[in-house]
Design goal:
With about 210 residues, the chain is α+β, with helices and mostly antiparallel strands. It is built from 10 helices and 5 strands, in the order αααααααβββααββα.
Length: about 210
């Protein structure tokens, strides 16, 4: 399965904002965006010129892709699916991205970042409705129950997870049982509940060219 293997901090610096891809590090003074608030590369510190309309649209698309850890072909597939659904295409796209299993694991507080959630899912630590699922892109639906596998609960990453989760907030569209390390998807999130600074209409305009 193809995936990005470079520095995720470079992605944040390229977009000029925190995408929270490194978990706790993003909240400390070690965050690369705070330490080097300019684009990566040899010419990163040069003054940026005026960005074209296409450039703005491209940046929004890249921001969304990098936030959710999705490669180009898969992102385009998600857009076509969003365009087929009833409703606003941009909001449909974000709902599809939010419904990925790795994102739901992150939203429920079982991981500190989406990349960490992706790795935990790929290693087979989670079940959906009682069945092991190790595909990060698996689409979770309303009423699905996501839980840490019984065999994984005594392992290092999950031993103190229940206590750690007490200090974390969760989204209103999921209901989390911290003691049993499980959560239920109540419904799809609304646009107001998706706390990511993405102008999805620009992505729609980009693909509509």
């Amino acid at each position: 399965m193809a995936r990005y293997t470079g520095s995720v901090c470079r992605q944040c610096r390229r977009e000029g904002l925190k995408l929270y891809l490194k978990g706790e590090r993003c909240y400390t003074e070690k965050c690369a965006v705070d330490r080097r608030a300019y684009a990566p590369g040899q010419h990163g510190q040069r003054r940026r010129g005026k960005v074209s309309e296409y450039g703005l649209q491209l940046r929004e698309k890249q921001k969304a892709r990098r936030t959710y850890g999705v490669l180009e072909s898969q992102f385009h597939k998600y857009f076509k699916e969003a365009d087929r659904r009833k409703g606003i295409t941009g909001e449909n796209l974000l709902q599809i991205l939010e419904s990925r299993l790795d994102n739901v694991v992150y939203r429920m507080g079982f991981a500190l970042s989406r990349p960490e959630a992706r790795q935990l899912v790929k290693h087979g630590h989670f079940t959906v409705n009682g069945r092991k699922v190790d595909i990060p892109s698996y689409q979770v639906r309303p009423d699905d129950v996501v839980a840490v596998r019984e065999s994984s609960r005594d392992k290092g990453r999950f031993k103190d997870l229940a206590e750690l989760m007490r200090t974390q907030g969760t989204m209103e569209w999921v209901n989390v049982d911290r003691e049993n390390l499980a959560g239920k998807v109540l419904r799809l999130p609304t646009r107001e509940e998706i706390d990511i600074p993405i102008a999805e209409h620009l992505i729609v305009e980009l693909y509509s060219r």
